[in-house]
Hints:
Layout (H helix, E strand, L loop, with lengths): L4 E5 L6 H12 L2 E4 H15 L6 H10 L2 E4 L8 E4 L2 E2 L7 H11 L2 H14 L5 E5 L2 H5 L5 E6 L2 H14 L7 H17 L12 E4 L5 H15 L1
Parallel strand pairs: 1-6, 1-7, 2-6, 7-8
Antiparallel strand pairs: 3-4, 4-5
Bound molecules: cytidine-5'-monophosphate.
Cytidine-5'-monophosphate binds next to helix 2, helix 4 and helix 8.
Amino acid sequence: VRKPIIAIDGPAGAGKSTVTRQVAKALNLTYLDTGAMYRGIAWLVLKSGIPVEDESAIAELVSQADLEFIFPSNDQPPQIIINGENVTHAIRTPQVTALVSPISAYPVVRQKLVSYQQELGKLGGIVAEGRDIGTNVFPDADVKIFLTASVQERARRRLIDFQAQGQDNIDIQQLERDIEQRDYQDSHRTLAPLRQASDAMELNTDGLTIEDVVNKIIHLYKMNE
Ligand code: C5P
């Protein structure tokens, strides 16, 4: 039998990455960051210079790409390697972030990454984070969480992240607009849009600490055992 799977979906900036990483560590499961995989493809398109509208050229590019996604079972960060180049850090730039929603809407991109994700999850033992994990990638996950927070709260958290990286010239209203735009694009695409699975538990994290959220998820998981 396969080991357990926890699916954590939700909009940009709800705290999924931090929470998922800590849940995986506490339960000794592997952390599967599917957003990093879509970012890897967006990075590849950006680097190629192919316009984002050119679906057939992007399909060709993606079908020929050598994709390597390494999700260590210890506390190490995932490694994203595209055509032999380690892009683990390069996928976090604002340029990649702006491109990832339109790129991830293409069927060819989703098919390739979803089958990769399902292969990685075949034996279970993972906490997977994304937009379509509970609805599409692992519909039989043992625990499904839909993590949300208000746009204002999510923008505030992003601002704190940027400030921690020494960037002080960030406009919070712009952050709110970027978050709303990405939410809109992710939830209005045709293929596997962002939405809460009917059997997912919604967790609004406004006013909760990371520790509160992690503990709630661990509690749900233990009740399910
Ligand atoms: O989670 P993260 O912000 O890194 O995700 C980046 C983008 O990748 C999302 O805005 C979304 O467009 C796409 N994505 C997706 N399906 C997933 C995970 C991410 O479409 N399962």
